[in-house]
Amino acid sequence: RQMCIRDSSLSLHHIILFVSMGEKGMKWLGQLWQSFLSVVKILLQSKWHTHLPSSFGNPEELLILANGPSLSRTVQEAPEFIKGKTLLAVNFCATSPMFEQLRPEIYLIADPLFWIVPEKRVQLFQTLAEKTTWPMNFFVPARALKNKEWQPMLAGNPNIRLCIYNTTPIEGFQGFCNWIFNRGWGVPRPHNVLIPSIAIGLRLPFRKIYLAGADHSWLPEITVTDDNVVLMHQKHFYDQNKSQAATVKQENLNSARLYTILYHMYVAFKSYFVLEDYARKLGKEVINITPASYIDAFKRMKI
Q: Which residues of the chain fall below pLDDT 50?
């Protein structure tokens, strides 16, 4: 009986101690667990050695051209601001006339649907192979190497230099995350293409990274039908006059639920604060020049 009482009091002591840690202690334990899981994911998913290009037309300033609807207006109204900066384009920018007009030195894709949906794969890679007549570094996720169907499409174009990067999602203590980002073993959870674009940009020599077309104004574009189907009107600068609301597909090609869509938004906007902290630690700046952007993590600038 004395042993039972002693064991009970010991357990109660641990419970009181655990509760007394409060919210700060729980947050610390949560970050510790996330850091541990990140290490496991790195060991299972990441490619250890990835190489970055080192030579750019302007090694000081990078302008990331996200595909939000405001990008066309920015390009039209601020040609002098764009001129002379190293440009990074993403996803389906190559299908627009702007691609050949701006001739980006860097191109990055992240959407897993490029490896799952053959039509998307053909649409992008054949267009890149046909249009790219200048030297361009093409960043693709390491897991894309498992798919062999897209590689022959680019093999005949010597202007496209392939660069591999890891999309392994990293969470945990900020200092730990920064250390991992520096080594290229992962990025903040990449729920959209802008997150790895900024992460890669910060690993390159640029001191200032500008964001254009980063509207992220999705919330007013979400509706739910009477059949409980969630629709989202994702507008891009190249299709805003003909795009329509559609169901959001997950990696398994099933339609996403509203809570899933909102959660992914939460993760994306939180990742920008992780990247802002990473940029400060590097002594660099990420500057959002997108008018009316919903991103609230980075310094704003009107041009």
A: 1-6, 8-9, 252-253
